[in-house]
Amino acid sequence: MDNILEIKGLEVDIAMKAGILHAVRGVSFCIASGETLCLVGESGSGKSLTALSILGLLPPNASRRTNVATFVGQDIAHLSERQMQDLRGRSIGMIFQDPMMAFNPTMTVGRQLEEVYLRHIKRDKKAARAKAVELLSRVGMTEPEGRMTQFPHQLSGGLRQRAMIAMALMCEPKLLIADEPTTALDVTMQAQVLSLLKSVQASFGVSILFITHDLGVVAAIADRVAVMKAGRVVEIGDVYQVLKSPRDDYTRALIAAVPKAKPLIASQARSVIGSVGHV
Ligand SMILES: Nc1ncnc2c1ncn2[C@@H]1O[C@H](COP(=O)(O)OP(=O)(O)O)[C@@H](O)[C@H]1O
Ligand SMILES: [Mg+2]
Fold first, then answer.
1. With a 6 A CB cut-off, is 15 part of the ligand 1 pocket?
2. What is the pLDDT of residues 202-228, one digit of tens each?
3. Which atom of ligand 1 is least distant from the CA of 211?
């Protein structure tokens, strides 16, 4: 299978008053076409900085080095800011924990979805509107035309998350990067959003880099998993293999720390697959 994303030897340093923090230390992984790779690890392990460096969105006090960073075979380590802007939103869709971060509070949801299309695909208002309505419906919104005229704050948290997924899909990206997209949601909503992502992946063939600190979520969505600790990937492999017979002590400790009731999320997520689109 072709690799959509390949990262080798990624390092991120952060300049702090007290000195340099080596926040990401030689991270390597690849994501195949149509595959979901989960980055899992405790808070502060470097997951978000890894994702942000792929997108060229690191904070100003951070610097990045990498041996290899390719997206669909193209080097993305040396792109200009303008070239990165073309990549973000068009070929790589982004989904964050807080949808309010993705949306402009002063513009309607529909207008914001259309803007992404008009900017990256073509200046065709009718086509942009049709695509936005189609995607809002695809992510499970009833009366998508009505939703188009609403402002982000008028949607519930779960619906906003769906609208953000729709926005990330406007340009039919090859890769979605989702950083803790379900962490702020309750368990039922979390299961619905996970299964929505799975079904969206099946229909659009998009690859997903999914970041979470929650192994229950990993079990529900990952094909492969990379376990991060203190800026390093300590274990990477097929999700069933890693969860069933972890090789690393830290992975074992993470698994042992999962409350017994947690695996429910995985089974709930699977059981709602198929009902998505009619919520
Ligand atoms: N802008 C920043 N300034 C200073 N330290 C940061 C900044 N962003 C991240 N860090 C630090 O880098 C480390 C990794 O952060 P992050 O990638 O956000 O972790 P994770 O997403 O796994 O919780 C943490 O120790 C965090 O405090
Ligand atoms: Mg994070």
1. no
2. 999 999 999 999 999 999 999 999 999
3. 21
Find the helix or strand (DSSP H, E) in which 23 lies.
strand 19-32
Q: How many degrees, rounded to 5, is the angle at CA 144 between CA 138 and CA 147?
A: 125
CB within 8 Å of 168: residues ≥ 6 apart: 93, 94, 95, 176
Q: Whole-angstrom Cα distance, residue 74 to residue 54?
A: 13
- Structural domains of the chain ordered from first start: 1-86+176-279 (3.40.50.300), 92-172 (no CATH)
Amino acid at 129: R
Ligand 1 lined by 229 (C-beta under 6 Å): no
**19-32 vs 3-16, strand pairing mode:** antiparallel
pLDDT digits (tens, 9 = 90+) for 20-53: 999 999 999 999 999 999 999 999 999 999 999 9
Burial tier of 270 (Cβ tally within 10 Å: 0-12, 13-18, 19+): middle
Crossing angle of helices 109-120 and 125-138, in 10° steps, is: 120
